[in-house]
Write the structure tokens for this entry.
Amino acid sequence: MASRWLFPAMALLGVLLAAGCTATPPRAPAPRLERPLVVPVAWEKDGLVVHASVNGSAPLPFIFDSGLSEIHVLSRETARRLGVEGRGWSMAGSWSGYASTSFAEVDELELGGLRFGRTPVAIMDLPESVTARKEGPPLAGFLGQPLFRPYAVTVDVAAGTLTLSQDHEPPAGAVVLPIRMRGGLPRVPARFGEASLQLDVDTGDFGEVTLYENAARRLRVLRRYGPGEVRGAVAAGGPFNYIAVRADGFRLGVLSFDDLELHVAPFGVAAAMKEDGTVGMGLLGRFRFTLDQPAGRLVLEPRCAAGGGGAGELRCDPSVEPGGGR
């Protein structure tokens, strides 16, 4: 068994307000953009890292996580340093189980000069193995769907930019995939061989494609590709194991992907609102991609050359691998 504790995945797939003793307060309306806003982003091994200020603080590092529904997350240590006091309690679900959560409201959240007033946050105990980074201060938390829903979000990891825009027109040559919202998260259709899948678009997942155990059993993944390699990771509820195999025959629209790394993960409590799995940064990072939830589409702009195996096959530039590291 290979245990990769130096490669911890947060994998916080959605805060589930289960059995909670308080309701989250309403948030202020998202500001409208008169022009696109471009902010720096770094693709580290566990996701996209941006810097945002809370209540006028110095910029703090956060994972920009499309797989985190309803509310942003502050680590309890960050909340303590900023004087943000939680109230009430609930349970947040992840692949590895539940974690205790309290709630607060910050007066202001600022990203690249864009100011969001009165913003609800969840406060959680995040393990050091989740917040630690190879360089720079530890993660302050996770920024989730409240930042994705109002805007088209374009990520170019090669250029190190994240762009928020009010409107986005897909460029010529881009692959446009429909998304629909389910449980507050964006879901895209895919195919694995002859089977249809519905996968959440999750910029907080470090992998290429993750299938939950039930979908992997249905598709006989381990029977087809062998037992794979068991690895360890850490989520909000603690450590968990997943299985990594090399697989082929995966398709997103007209694009086909062979020899990708497929992760088989426990179904987990946070997967209750999901079906088959996720598309993560390992695959999304091969493209300049735009998650345009207002328009209901995922736009992929290949930075890859056509492969020799038929229409839609890609041979991608390895220079867009994640940097920094954690």
